[in-house]
Design brief:
Tetrapolymerization of the monopyrrole PBG into the hydroxymethylbilane pre-uroporphyrinogen in several discrete steps. GO terms for molecular function: hydroxymethylbilane synthase activity. Residues 3-210 form the Porphobilinogen deaminase N-terminal domain. With 308 residues, the chain is of the alpha/beta class. The protein folds into 3 domains: 2-97 and 197-217, Periplasmic binding protein-like II (D-Maltodextrin-Binding Protein, domain 2); 103-184, 3-Layer(aba) Sandwich (D-Maltodextrin-Binding Protein, domain 2), CATH 3.40.190.10; 232-305, Double Stranded RNA Binding Domain, CATH 3.30.160. 35% of the residues lie in helices and 24% in strands. The chain has helices spanning 11-27, 41-44, 50-53, 61-68, 127-134, 149-157, 168-174, 207-213, 219-235, 280-305; strands at residues 2-7, 32-37, 74-78, 90-95, 103-106, 121-123, 141-143, 163-167, 180-184, 198-203, 243-250, 253-261, 268-275. Strand 11 (243-250) and strand 12 form a beta hairpin. The radius of gyration is 19 Å and the shape is globular. Bound molecules: the ligand NCc1[nH]cc(CCC(=O)O)c1CC(=O)O. Residues 78, 80-81, 149, 166-167, 169-170, 195-196 line the site of the ligand NCc1[nH]cc(CCC(=O)O)c1CC(=O)O. The ligand NCc1[nH]cc(CCC(=O)O)c1CC(=O)O binds next to strand 8 and helix 7.
Amino acid sequence: MRIRIGTRKSKLALWQANFIAEQLKKHFPDIEIELVKIVTKGDKILDVPLAKVGGKGLFVKEIEEAMLRKEIDIAVHSLKDVPTYFPEGLGLVAITEREDPRDAFLSVRYSSIDDMPEGAVLGTSSLRRKAQIMMKRKNLVIEDLRGNVDTRIRKLEEGQYDGIILAYAGLKRLGFQDRVKQIFEPDYMIPAVAQGFLGIEARLDDEKTKEIVSVLNHKESEIRAKAERAFLKTLEGGCQVPLAGYSEIVDGKLRITGFVSDLEGKRFFKDSMEGTPDKPEELGEKLAQKLLDMGAREVLEEIYKGEN
Ligand SMILES: NCc1[nH]cc(CCC(=O)O)c1CC(=O)O
């Protein structure tokens, strides 16, 4: 049996694809694995803020097309980058155990975000990170920061920014923990929907591959990912809206927190809900509906109309 893994060629994507390859080999020593590197639109447009290119699916489309043409058998994605809709015939077949979902602050000079003086330049292209920081630190200058994880760290170290925010998961995977000055707890900065999970996508009629890959599925992570992605899907939010969603299973209960705001973090809607882990999608949808009714609907409409 041979499995061809489609992956982007960034360091993080390759690390993740190799990690999955190793895990599969551990379970099935006889399996032959090949990595197929694919360049996506998101890798090509590296100078434009993601929110302006219409972020949805930017890092997955070309990989899905290769899978439909049967040039690859599975794709390993950062689940955070995977849209909630799939092309006909494709879908997620495994969610791996969640890596640390929190966001991290990196800086050469400052040991925390509150150490940064008025006017200091914070780099992030994430509307979610930007809005949540602006709610607490109105006097920072927030500038776009694009590129792969290693590129972003280089830009920080070259002095283009006084501080930057990145997902701790990617930093851990690439061995950059030593650059981290502060880790934000989810109640300070709600993580992105699905931050820290890897999602494995396959052709839904490929029973053999599905059976093999399903050994990597982590049940609790699958439940949390489903709750968060149902929340995202109900809000129809791409990267164009400041939106966050984070779930946990505590004492057998599934708890999800969601956040939607305008681009400046001035009008924001945040709430939590608890339910049973057996219906994660229902809980995610219910929370999204609640935020919409609280006023998020209006904010979303304004952003989509470009009035904001
Ligand atoms: N949008 C890019 C992206 N997609 C996934 C990760 C990190 C790893 C993860 O969340 O699983 C990153 C980098 C970042 O946001 O710092």
